[in-house]
Design goal:
By secondary structure, the protein is an alpha/beta fold. It has three helices and four strands. This is Putative capsular polysaccharide synthesis enzyme.
């Protein structure tokens, strides 16, 4: 089983833009400022993108509702490769990622 890092957090949303106030400003930036390594996946959107220490941004292309399932493949691969021990899923459909990896006996919180 892959060794997971307690100080690394994997956050993702396949529906919200990266600059969503609740997710980016109140959660991702706050955690990064407290010393956690944050991997954040969200939809790309116009706006000034900051370079924050400890915050690794990954931008997903905006897709139609019918095409959104394509994000699942990208997020699943990133989820499996991540060294994070803590995961934040901001959309209910992303819980399928956790379920899929639970079957692989993946250690997660």
């Amino acid at each position: 089983m892959k060794k997971r890092d307690e100080k690394r957090i994997f956050m993702c949303s396949s529906v919200h833009v990266w600059s969503d106030t609740r997710i980016y400003f109140k959660e991702a930036k706050s955690l990064a400022n407290k010393g956690f390594q944050v991997e954040f996946y969200a939809l790309d959107f116009e706006g000034e993108k900051e370079n924050i220490p400890n915050l690794e941004m990954h931008y997903l292309p905006a897709l139609s509702r019918k095409e959104r399932y394509q994000h699942m493949r990208v997020l699943l691969k990133a989820f499996e490769e991540s060294e994070a021990k803590n995961f934040h899923f901001h959309d209910p459909e992303l819980l399928l990622l956790a379920k899929k990896n639970q079957k692989k006996n993946m250690e997660m919180k």
